[in-house]
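debug: dumping io for the single-chain case to check the tokenizer round-trip. Nothing else runs in this session.
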Amino acid sequence: MNISSAMLAAGTILAAALIAWVVDLVRNDRLPRGILLVLGSLSALGLVAMVISDLDDVASQYWSDHSVASAILSSLLLVGTVYIFYENNEQQRQDAMVTGLSGAGVGGIVDHMIDLEIALALLSQDKEPPALHPIWWKDWLDGKPLRWLRNGRGELTKKDAHDPRTMAVAARADCALGGELIDQCVRRLLAAMRDWTPLISASTAGTEALLLLSHVRVELMQLQANYQPGCTDSAILVGQIRNKLRVLALCFEDWSFGDSVAENNSFRRPEIMFTAAPGAPEEPHFPSVDNRELSEKLESASAQIGFS
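debug: decoded output
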């Protein structure tokens, strides 16, 4: 094998590895749009260069002498060009669906995230909901899960409101009937996922958001199975779940309006919280998120709230 043959073989293997790596990045939405277009253009130029070089007798003989490597290389460049430009169009379609269908879906469950955090905040109290707000929440065991939290909802946005989320977090979860509250949280989350999945799952980012919600459901079920009034471990898990719900509520709210509108706070629901207080300002740990756009939205929401 001479030097030129060895270089062609090495170049073919390198091109195969590079295209495989790019395909993996594209499939997981980890490649910026600009770089994607540059790589697609380079693949197209490489393919055109091979076709033009075949018009030259010397180059044509060279490709003929290395028919296997040249066939593989031209196929890689062709597949790379077609696939990359196809994925670019697919990403544009995904972007439209993320903002449109999935954005509408996640906007529909923001209130659910808020209600879940309020219910979990009540676990830090040593009284049941009727004892805290007998007028608003006296029927907390009746009707659909957490529907009673909609009574007196406007009171949460008043300056002197007694929003449970703003009260000091107890070192222990003291609510004697906390198991019933957690059960309502689980059922409320399942209902939200059932009602809004058709819209949310329209995009890859939306599907990943549903996976995050499923992880929250698992944590709620773990809390329900191990909950004991006065238990420090239960209180720690409650705080961790509350932090996640607060980030998801803001993330979904901004997502539903789009980046340009979300920059204006007046468009956000007044119940949205922009502070980590009264809990610890520790950034909630979400499972690995492969979708770049969703990851950026979660990081933005965490930063706005003040989680470090």
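debug: round-trip ok. The chain has a mean pLDDT of 79.
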